[in-house]
Amino acid sequence: GEDVEQSLFLSVREGDSSVINCTYTDSSSTYLYWYKQEPGAGLQLLTYIFSNMDMKQDQRLTVLLNKKDKHLSLRIADTQTGDSAIYFCAETAFTGGGNKLTFGTGTQLKVEL
Amino acid sequence: NAGVTQTPKFQVLKTGQSMTLQCAQDMNHNSMYWYRQDPGMGLRLIYYSASEGTTDKGEVPNGYNVSRLNKREFSLRLESAAPSQTSVYFCASTSPGGELFFGEGSRLTVL
User: Fold this and answer.
1) From the CB of residue B10, how many other CB atoms can be counted at a distance below 10 Å?
2) Hey, are the CB atoms on B100 and A99 less than 8 Å from each other?
3) B94 touches chain A (CB under 8 A)
4) Distance between CA atoms of A22 and A113, rounded to whole angstroms?
5) 3-class DSSP assignment, residue B101
């Protein structure tokens, strides 16, 4: 079945860039997502990229997709303390049976002053 | 907008007890989902409902049942709770564009 992997922890200093990495196995993935989860809350969609794109930029967020290596990354520029959260990578291949996402384990981002 | 609403937010059960987690969305979405979140394992799909009147098993359906009561509501039932079902449960629904909207989660502890 599909598998999505992420490292569990990342620590950065405020103002630095953060890069969160993700690898997936499903070559039929059509959309790849980044979700953010703050403590005690549900997940919120940060950004997504369609599988025929290499890069997507949205303000401080840059998503890079290497489809050949099945590698997805999320770069957060000028990381702030408010960016401290768990970040989940997810992928889906639309099958007509609902948008079933496969999530990674999540990366806990800690931003230090 | 309320979005996706789950109840209860917290619950403690003894092994063997039953309970139902309720979920409702007011966004007129067709598809709804139940996930569980465990440390180091991300979110795993328990059951989903692609549309009103249909339900299908996800990755970890054992020990659970679901009911898609109508377009708005999708409930998750534990008939005989086990300690392995201690987790945080998230209900979600999908917009036509494919974005998942999550509830705030229900933290369940089974003693």
Assistant:
1) 9
2) yes
3) yes
4) 26
5) strand
Residues present in chain B in total:
111
Nearest Cβ partner for A41 among B45, B94, B104: B104
Inter-chain contacts counted by CB atoms under 8 A, chains A and B: 62
Q: Is residue A96 within 8 Å of residue A108, measured between CB atoms?
A: no
Quote the CA–CA distance of A89 and A33 in Å, as a whole number.
6
For residue B74 the two structure tokens come to: 């999708």
Q: Which of B23, B28, B14 lies closest to B90 in space, CA to CA? A: B23
B89 and chain A in contact, CB less than 8 A: no
Contact B108, B37 (CB under 8 A): no
Q: Say if the Cβ atoms of B48 and A104 lie within 8 Å.
A: no
Partners of A31 on chain B (C-beta within 8 Å) are 98
Express each pLDDT in B74-103 by its tens digit.
999 999 999 999 999 999 998 877 788 999
Are the beta carbons of A103 and B43 separated by less than 8 Å?
Answer: yes
Q: How far apart are CA B40 and CA B42, in angstroms?
A: 6
Question: Is the four-CA dihedral A71, A76, A79, A85 of positive or negative sign?
Answer: negative
pLDDT tens-digit map of B10-58: 999 999 999 999 999 999 999 999 999 998 788 999 999 989 989 999 9
**Residue A33: strand, helix, or coil:** strand
Best residue in B100, B102, B106 to probe A by mutation, most A CBs within 10 Å?
B100
Q: What is the DSSP string of B48-72?
A: EESSTT--EE-S--TT-EEEE-SSS
